[in-house]
Amino acid sequence: MTEYYLAVDIGASSGRHILGHMEQGRMVMEEMHRFYNGLTVKDGEACWDLEQLFEEIKIGLKKCGKAGKIPVSMGIDTWAVDFVLLDGNDQVLGNTVGYRDKRTEGMDRLVRPVIPEKELYGRTGIQKQIFNTIYQLMAVKEKHPDHLEKAEAMLMVPDYFQFLLTGKRASEYTNATTTQLVSPKTKDWDFELIEMLGYPKHIFQPIKKPGTVLGTFTEEIRREVGFDCQVILPATHDTGSAVLAVPSNEENALYISSGTWSLMGVERKEADCTEESRRLNFTNEGGYDHRFRYLKNIMGLWMIQSLKKELQDAYSFAELCEMASQESIPSLVDCNDSRFLAPESMTEAVQGYCKETGQQVPAAPAQLAGVIYRSLADCYGKTVREIETMTGVRYKNLHVVGGGANAAYLNQLTAASTGKTVLAGPTEATAIGNLMVQLMAKGVLADLEAARQCVYDSFEIKIYEP
Ligand code: LRH
């Protein structure tokens, strides 16, 4: 009988249930459910609708049951850094605020006197991003100190969903590292740091590695969805899952996990927490098997997603890509400029940047999309050169995984700007990586090497030469 495994992969703009099973050594996948995700304003704060997302999780589970494809195990991954605080009755305290909200503005000024940024990086290896959990918790401490006082538990978003399914609380390691409160040496919470910042220590849950069996459905969930299922922790940080599915066993594989963000980097055995690495804004995120993802966050397709929305979805991503390739102007923006993080209008933000820097201002949709795609590719080129300097390695290929691997024009530009052969695919890398951890936990795949070989054997990869 076929054994199905289920990945629930929720990104900043959509979520999906993907069932996977093995056929003659290859992975076969089937999408069972897809749903919208996005931020909505509540009490002036940009929030995720976690209740609705949990409803969608259950709808997708019911669809699997209806199709007679009941998974033997499942795991959930989402974007990083966001969390909930639970009170003694397991109720969420306050709004479920998303990382693009303004509440973290200026919070670095409150963290800095407690611990200088250089020292913070030396201790955690995590790149400064104003939306990291460390700064979000400072915002809660400032604006809603009662929430921190009443809190009994802090759970990252996927940990929270998995708690709702199983009644078991845990902090999955890969996502925990994005709080900037975990030590890359001990791979555990840095309680000394947590105490220095005045965050209550007891809310931090035990850290569990991907592959850990969290539990099975609660009686209530079992009744509602109609079956029971084991919940196995994947790399719950979506980027952690995506990088697991880079189809290469080469020691020096360079990748971009391309989605709402472009995460560009390599995998390493040790974290680099040096001052040079900090100045270049590289991060050392925790990965499967205690490997590190040494990478840089680049603003990514969020810029195109925002533009598409502002154009009232008149064009598909494929059309925007195609239009951009037809009509280009030479202007470039710095994708990592903070003005692009959550602008009221991406169009105006891009135009404003070009105007301020004396460049031609894009007006038509094709020009705007062109400036964004070419600026991203330009940023990838610079980042590769920085990675090569930091690691002392020259890379031949660049793997592009995730939804962005579909953007043919961007892939071509990327090959040109980096001078690397671009290997694009798989596009569903995050769900695949999630499934791979379950398959390894179940002993179907021996180890990470076997998992990556399986990805290589199972999915199409497109090649773009520089
Ligand atoms: C990508 C991602 C990224 C984080 C950001 C918050 O979805 O998880 O790795 O930096 O969202």
Describe the structure.
The structure is a single chain. A hairpin with a 2-residue loop joins strand 4 (40-42) and strand 5 (45-47). The protein folds into 2 domains: 4-232, Nucleotidyltransferase, domain 5; 248-425, Nucleotidyltransferase, domain 5, CATH 3.30.420.40. It is globular. The strands form 5 sheets. It has a 7-stranded mixed β-sheet with strand order 15-16-14-13-17-18-19, with helices on both faces. The chain has a 6-stranded mixed β-sheet with strand order 3-2-1-6-12-11. Strands 4-5 form a two-stranded antiparallel sheet. Helices cover 38% and strands 20% of the residues. With 466 residues, it is an alpha/beta fold. It is built from 18 helices and 19 strands. Bound molecules: 6-deoxy-beta-L-fructofuranose. Residues 254-441 form the Carbohydrate kinase FGGY C-terminal domain. Keywords: ATP-binding, Disulfide bond, Kinase, Nucleotide-binding, Rhamnose metabolism, Transferase. This is Rhamnulokinase.
What labels would you give this structure?
2 domains, Nucleotidyltransferase, domain 5, binds 6-deoxy-beta-L-fructofuranose, 18 helices, alpha/beta, 466 residues, 6-stranded mixed beta sheet, 7-stranded mixed beta sheet, globular
Q: How many angstroms does the end-to-end distance come to?
A: 46 Å
Shape verdict: globular
The total of helices stands at 18
CATH fold type of the largest domain: Nucleotidyltransferase, domain 5
> What is the overall pLDDT average?
97
* Helix-strand makeup class: alpha/beta
The total count of strands amounts to: 19
In the CATH scheme, the class of the largest domain would be Alpha Beta
How many domains, in number, for the residues? 2
Bound molecules: 6-deoxy-beta-L-fructofuranose
The assigned CATH architecture of the largest domain is 2-Layer Sandwich
Radius of gyration: 21 Å
CATH 4th-level superfamily of the largest domain: ATPase, nucleotide binding domain
Largest sheet: 7 strands, mixed
Strand order of the largest sheet: 15-16-14-13-17-18-19
**Stretches with pLDDT under 50, minimum 5 residues:** none
The level of helicity is 25-40%
Q: Percent of residues in beta strands?
A: 15-25%
